[in-house]
Specification:
This protein is an all-alpha fold and 81 residues long. It has a domain at 9-60. The chain is built from 4 helices and no strands. It has helices at 11-24, 28-48, 53-58, 69-80. The model has no long low-confidence stretch (mean pLDDT 86).
């Protein structure tokens, strides 16, 4: 069953979101529903898979870096060859 949900946001944000939805060929409602699904599924997954404290402290540490797989390969080559 679908139920109507009213959200209050800044006009600028709404207009940008509508533009993104149009580019993706989706309605804004569908895009918000998809986001809520991802958000709730991630929270459920986080509850199921509890990371050890030392790993949890590192989670996301490289999110803003530009390090990729080729950098790691070069590191290994330099170290072992």
């Amino acid at each position: 069953m679908q139920t109507k949900l009213t959200l209050r946001m800044e006009d600028k944000l709404i207009n940008m979101a509508k533009s993104v939805a149009e580019k993706k060929g989706k309605s804004l409602s569908k895009m918000v529903a998809d986001y809520f699904n991802v958000l709730t599924n991630k929270e459920i997954a986080d509850e199921i898979i509890e990371l050890p404290p030392n790993v949890k402290s590192l989670y996301g540490a490289l999110a803003d870096s530009d390090i990729d797989e080729s950098d790691y390969k070069k590191y290994l080559e330099d170290k072992y060859l």
